[in-house]
Specification:
By secondary structure, this protein is mainly beta. The protein has helices spanning about 5-20, 25-40, 240-255, and strands spanning about 65-70, 75-80, 85-90, 95-100, 110, 120-125, 140-150, 155-175, 180-190, 195-205, 210-220, 225-235, 265, 270-280, 285-295, 300-310, 315. The N and C termini lie far apart (about 95 Å).
């Protein structure tokens, strides 16, 4: 046996004397070490939590049209609800499916890349994996996943396994462009075999059922951080019946209500409030009104300020009127 091979084999067997059966493969050693490290976490000293005391937080709820916009320009919204899966639109034709657990893997995804190639993939969580939900300070779990990516050129499927360690190390009060929130901090590190690949950290606000900040770091050295800018039901993405009710409520409010007098309506989980703000008349005698519409669902509210002008067909958005309003 060549000298260097004998030395390598001896090293493997020495490692085996401590915690592993002798002479395992590198993959087996990596898996065993990962499991050992996970187990040691229960003996580590847990720092005192100086953040707010929060009750356990259940999985968030979502509905069609729920939207979230971040300060870096990323905007996502719920395109569809399919049983226990949420279909998100991340812009263009980028669609991805997840459960309500946004910390988990993307279960299905697809998009068209810059070279007009269709890319797609899937993943699932293996049996026996833990979960951080309901969120509680001090939670620490391990999650094993299996993924498959489809090569856009050959159609070949590349399958691989990964695992994550997720924990809830603290709570914190955080101010972002969308407001100030009491949050749970969730931190998940992803590994391929024994190699660290990525860590994601979320600041989850139970008050609105979503995260208000996200930090991500990769083994390539790249880091990315974003904070929530605005959130709530998107008027153009909610179900059609709710869009129709919103349009009718706008017409009623602008036709009958004085400035400051809100017209309200409700359908399903959506609450609508339309409040006229100001009335002006153009130099051609056309009456126009500025109004605020507020859409609330699942404790998330979006707000838009618009203007509409009176025509023979009712109140029409000012952008669609040939003669703009001038006070």
């Amino acid at each position: 046996m060549p000298k260097q091979v004998r030395h390598f084999g001896a090293l493997i067997c020495v490692l085996g004397l401590f915690s592993l059966p002798a002479c395992q493969t590198l993959d087996q050693i990596g898996t065993s070490l990962n499991e050992l490290n996970d187990g040691l976490g229960q003996y580590a000293d847990r720092p005192e939590n100086n953040g707010p005391t929060l009750p356990p937080a259940p999985l968030p709820e979502f509905g069609k049209g729920d939207a979230f916009v971040f300060d870096g320009g990323r905007a996502i919204y719920v395109e569809e609800i399919k049983d226990d899966r949420i279909v998100w639109n991340g812009g263009g034709d980028y669609l991805f499916e997840m459960t309500s657990d946004f910390t988990g893997p993307i279960l299905e995804w697809s998009y068209t890349d810059q070279e007009d190639r269709k890319r797609s993939g899937s993943a699932f969580v293996k049996d026996g994996s833990g979960t951080v939900w309901p969120l509680k300070y001090g939670t620490h779990v391990r999650i094993s996943t299996s993924s498959a990516n489809v090569d856009p050129d050959t159609g070949d499927v590349n399958e691989f396994d990964q695992w994550l360690t997720c924990q809830v190390p603290e709570t914190a009060t955080l101010t972002v462009p969308a407001g100030t929130f009491d949050t749970y901090v969730i931190e998940c590190s992803r590994y391929y075999k024994q190699w660290w690949m990525q860590t994601t950290k979320w600041w989850y606000a139970p008050e609105i059922g979503f995260y208000v900040k996200r930090d991500r770091s990769w083994n390539s050295g790249q880091d990315h951080s974003e904070e929530l800018l605005t959130f709530g039901p998107a008027p153009a993405k909610i179900p059609q019946a709710q869009q129709d009710l919103l349009a009718a409520t706008v017409q009623t409010a602008l036709e009958n209500n004085t400035s400051g007098d809100a017209e309200t309506a409700r359908l399903g989980s959506l609450d609508i409030a339309v409040t006229p703000l100001q009335t002006v008349q153009t130099d051609k005698g056309v009456w126009c009104r500025t109004y605020r519409q507020e859409l609330t669902a699942r404790n998330r509210t979006s707000q838009q300020v618009k203007s509409a002008c009176r025509t023979d067909d009712g109140w029409v958005l000012e952008d669609d009127v040939s003669e703009p309003a001038r006070q």
